Amino acid sequence: MSDLDWSTPEGLAAIRDxxxxxxxxxxxxxxxxxxxxxxxxxxxxxxxxxxxxxGRHGLPAVVLATILGxxxxxxxxxxxxxxxxxxxxxxxxxxxxxxLDHPNLAAWRExxxxxxxxPAREAVAVFVADLADPVTSEADASLRVAFDGATPEV
Length: 154
Fold this sequence. Notes:
Layout: H1 9-20, E1 31-36, E2 50-51, H2 58-68, E3 75-79, H3 81-91, H4 103-117, E4 123-128, H5 138-146
Helix pairs in contact: 1-2, 2-3, 3-4
């Protein structure tokens, strides 16, 4: 993929399409995020950045799905530190596109930092293909709460 253009929004869209075409059954999720297990006794999972319904950041979803072998369907998937590092490494070239913010990269790096600081915490990738789909986990439920404008903090 080194011949693809990471420096423009159009180039990133082409990279997204290229990767998505390689995932059997891929469908763009309505929402997705990387979350952290609670750091205290509260049951809410923490999401530093939520790609909610109507979002425009499709490349991070495809990168995560590629690494996790996922098709974009509604699911909560365990995310190892190695998987998250691979996702950051795979998406980092997108920072060459200075016309866009890169909130997913910032969030994923924040999650890595939190995992380093508290090895008892766990990370997950949550995909919601359709908002009408049943909730798949406590993390999924916490993510959907964020759609209503709640801004969880790490």
